[in-house]
Design goal:
The chain is α+β, with helices and mostly antiparallel strands. It folds into 3 domains: 153 residues, Aldehyde oxidase/xanthine dehydrogenase, molybdopterin binding domain (Aldehyde Oxidoreductase, domain 4); 172 residues, Alpha-Beta Complex (Aldehyde Oxidoreductase, domain 3); 316 residues, Aldehyde Oxidoreductase, domain 4, CATH 3.30.365.10. The strands form 7 sheets. The chain has a 7-stranded mixed sheet with strand order 3-5-1-12-9-10-11. It has a 6-stranded mixed sheet with strand order 7-15-14-13-8-29, sandwiched between helices. A 4-stranded mixed sheet has the order 18-26-27-28, sandwiched between helices. Helix 6 packs across helix 7, helix 10 runs parallel beside helix 19 and helix 16 crosses helix 17. The longest helix has 28 residues. It is globular and about 90 Å long.
Length: 774
């Protein structure tokens, strides 16, 4: 590799000008050309048997009996998992309000909406199961017929119990137990889901243009369901207006659209409404943790946990409804050097919208549980909470966690120390006094966490996934004019990956980033890949890109060596030239490229052109960070305002620091919303009460403070580029730090805030109870 000149620079994102000029193309921009528009008729009953579905005479109405499609049945090959089938359209049984039962077509969106209003669905209701805690009780009505024997609604029952745990637990000199509750939330991207399925009568192929994170996986899932070859379906993910995990799963609506488009030999568009998005587009984070810590000589050494995740009515493809509880089980110890571990993690069915990954998946709740545990234990032990963490953090590497994860390295203690320097603890008492004079209660909170990132096929195989995401492939060529095109299987949707990869390629090939074009999101023109999710794109796609760049660089050197009559080993690529090492003798890369294509006879022993391919499938690594937050609470209203936010993040090598900062800023904003604002609320009949932004509150500029951001760059050997994932870190650390700060602010009342979101009504109710007993 040539001397780096571009990696580490905060270059403007290459795709920003197009978006900022309003020239981006999202799915709705393609929908205007469709011959038909689809509306999905959805169940208005949470649980029941479908008696009949009747539509307008002559309307294009499709029900489950009209679809020759197999149900979506994600599989884990492990004994603690029970697979559940999700039909493309509900047939005899509906299992949540918002479940699609029929599709109706109109020539315009308005006509389709009018026809949908005329469809009559007669459902015989039964009492819905709406609480995981009630669903696991003996005698509870099963949501599906297939669960563990004697357990009506548990579909994942994971357990870890290290050797002699009970003996080690008994030897601890202090135990702390807490319960942490996370309410149901959703990714709510700015652009809802949407797709256009267009059948080409000339070729017999169908093109699905869809707002998705994993276009190759979407194609595989649809083809498996419909029993058609992959070559008959092209999937395109154009500009995507936000995803955050909610678009990495196969939508049953997409299967239906492709089937109907093929059947009618036409094109059909569907754009999800905001209320549909809330009702049906995957939820997350509804979990309850019972966590106990065993401490010995002021250090956390043992951990016991019982985790229950409400996963809704079905399993998501391809990661399954095990994604939250199994991640929680594996990663709950986080950055702490815990030696003894006993955990049970369950996925429990309910008559609610199914869950799927949302930025951070289980880790925001895991971190909340662990960091509330540490603060509570510090208070009980009379130890400074910073000191208790310092004693308990992993400090030597490599470290193997009690769940078997190998931490290659980490800067846990260094991040904590730097954050403490920035926390201005010496002036905290005065700041609290100043706030009190204004009628406010000020508190400071922190959180430390590790984020498992960039893990490849081995990690997914170990989880038991029948479909094992992980590796990435990149194909690259330099054209006759010396410009480079890279085709990637990853599918970025706003992260700036094209820019970061262009910087990486530029350094490997000794060119400028503007000479690099990156293509993604089209199954016809990119190699098979797993898309963008799980803080992995820069690590895994970046590694594959580095390998492809090196392969291309070797070909460039071979041609240049022939032109300069020297060995390729004696050449270095820099500044758009291939130079003989230690001299100014060289040849321009555009001349090399022209020769490779147009005068290939001058390069005996090799074929024409300049190409490179790369594959990368790592075991994974860990990012880590420390967040410090100061919050002011108004005891009269319960409103909490963040007045200071500090992040010390270690994401390894920063290819583009500005893009990394943006990822953390956005993640913190969503973490703030998780902690204070966002909650999906169902009533006792299974009706979702929060179906608009009037009821479900995303963060605005008013709630997100200035974020003081600092970076450590601990380089890891576990990744090819030295980079670690960073996309989810802000969301993971924020809720725990915020709730710790609120608990500190309310310490005078003796209130522990262990439930998120910590809304004003919840905080005011807790304060009112304490005031009444004074």
């Amino acid at each position: 590799m040539s001397i780096p000149t571009w990696v580490g620079r905060s270059l403007p994102r290459l795709d920003d000008p197009t978006i900022l000029r309003g020239e981006g193309r999202f799915v709705a921009d393609y929908a205007v050309d469709a011959q038909w528009h689809a509306v999905f008729v959805r169940s208005s009953v949470a649980a029941g048997t479908v008696r009949s579905i009747r539509g307008p005479v002559g309307a294009h109405l499709f029900t489950a009996s009209d679809l020759a499609a197999a149900p979506i049945t994600p599989v884990l090959t492990r004994p603690d998992y029970v697979p559940v089938a999700m039909p493309i359209l509900a047939g005899a049984v509906v299992r949540f309000i918002g479940e699609p039962v029929a599709v109706v077509l109109g020539r315009t969106p308005a006509e389709a909406e009018d026809l949908a209003e005329m469809v009559e669905v007669d459902i015989d209701p039964v009492d819905p199961v709406l609480s995981a805690q009630l669903a696991i009780r003996p005698g509870s009505r099963p949501v599906h017929d297939v669960t563990f024997p004697g357990d009506p609604n548990t579909v994942v029952d994971g357990r870890i119990h290290t050797n002699d745990f009970e003996g080690a637990w008994a030897e601890c000199d202090h135990h702390t137990t807490i319960e942490v509750v996370s309410r149901r939330q959703s990714a709510v991207p700015l652009e809802t889901r949407g797709s256009v399925a267009a059948f080409d009568r000339r070729t017999g192929r169908t093109t699905l243009t869809t707002s998705a994170q994993m276009p190759h996986v979407v194609r595989t899932g649809i083809c498996d369901s419909l029993g058609i070859p992959a070559s008959s379906l092209r999937v395109i993910a154009p500009d995507v207006g936000g995803a955050f995990g909610g678009k990495m799963t196969l939508a049953r609506e997409d299967v239906a659209l492709v089937h109907i488009a093929r059947t009618l030999r036409t094109s059909i568009a569907w754009i999800e409404t905001r209320s549909e998005n809330f009702l049906s587009a995957w939820h997350s984070r509804e979990q309850v943790y019972q966590v106990s810590g065993g401490f010995k000589e002021g250090r956390l050494v043992a951990l016991r946990a019982d985790i229950v995740a409400d996963v809704g009515a079905y399993s998501c493809y391809p990661v399954t409804f095990g994604v939250e509880p199994l991640m929680a089980m594996a990663e709950l110890p986080g950055p702490y050097a815990i030696e003894h571990y006993a955990v049970r993690a369950r996925a429990v069915l309910s008559n609610k919208c199914p869950i799927a990954p949302y930025r951070g998946v289980s880790r925001p709740v895991q971190t909340l549980a662990m960091e509330r545990l540490m603060d509570t234990a510090a208070r009980e032990l009379g130890i400074d909470p910073w000191e208790l963490r310092r004693r308990s953090l992993v400090s030597s590497f490599p470290h193997t966690s009690p769940s078997g994860l190998v931490y290659d390295e980490g800067s846990y203690t260094a991040s904590l120390a730097w954050a403490e320097d920035l926390a201005q603890r010496e002036g905290l008492a005065q700041r609290k006094a100043d706030a009190l004079r204004r009628g406010r209660l000020l508190g400071q909170g922190l959180s430390v966490f590790s984020e498992r990132t960039g893990y490849g096929t081995p990690a997914f195989a170990a989880r038991g996934m029948a479909i094992t995401p992980g590796y990435e492939r990149v194909e690259m060529d330099m054209d006759p004019s010396g410009y480079v095109t890279a085709r990637i299987g990853a599918s970025p949707h706003g992260q700036g990956l094209h820019t970061s990869l262009a910087q990486l390629i530029a350094d490997h090939l000794g060119i400028e980033p503007h000479r690099v074009r990156v293509i993604s999101g089209d199954t016809d023109s990119t190699p098979f890949g797993w898309g963008s999710f799980a803080s992995r794109s820069m690590v895994i796609c970046g590694g594959a890109t580095a390998n492809a760049s090196e392969a291309l660089a070797e070909q460039i050197k071979q041609v240049a060596g022939s032109m300069l009559e020297c060995s390729p080993r004696d050449l270095v690529l820099r500044g758009g030239y291939a130079y003989v090492v230690g001299s100014d003798v060289g040849v321009a890369l555009d001349e090399v490229a022209r020769t490779a294509y147009l005068s290939s006879h001058r390069n005996p022993g090799r074929g024409p052109g300049l190409y490179g391919q790369g594959v990368y499938d790592p075991g994974g690594t860990f990012s880590n960070a420390c967040h410090v937050v100061e919050v002011e609470v108004d005891p009269e209203t319960g409103a909490a305002e963040i007045v200071r936010y500090v992040v010390v993040e270690d994401a390894g090598v920063l290819v583009n620091p500005a893009i990394v900062d943006g990822q953390i800023h956005g993640g913190v904003a969503q973490g703030i919303a998780n902690a204070l604002l966002e909650e999906l609320v169902y009533d006792e009949h299974g009706n979702l009460l929060t179906t608009s932004f009037l009821d479900y509150l995303p963060p605005t500029a008013c709630e997100v403070p200035f974020i003081e951001l600092h970076h450590l760059e601990t380089v890891t050997d576990a990744t090819l580029t030295g980079a670690k994932g960073v996309g989810e870190g802000g969301t993971i650390g924020a809720p725990a730090a915020i709730l710790n700060a609120i608990t500190d602010a309310l310490s005078g009342y003796g209130i522990d805030v262990n439930e998120m979101p910590a809304t004003p009504s919840r905080l005011r109710a807790a304060i009112r109870i304490k005031e009444a007993t004074r």
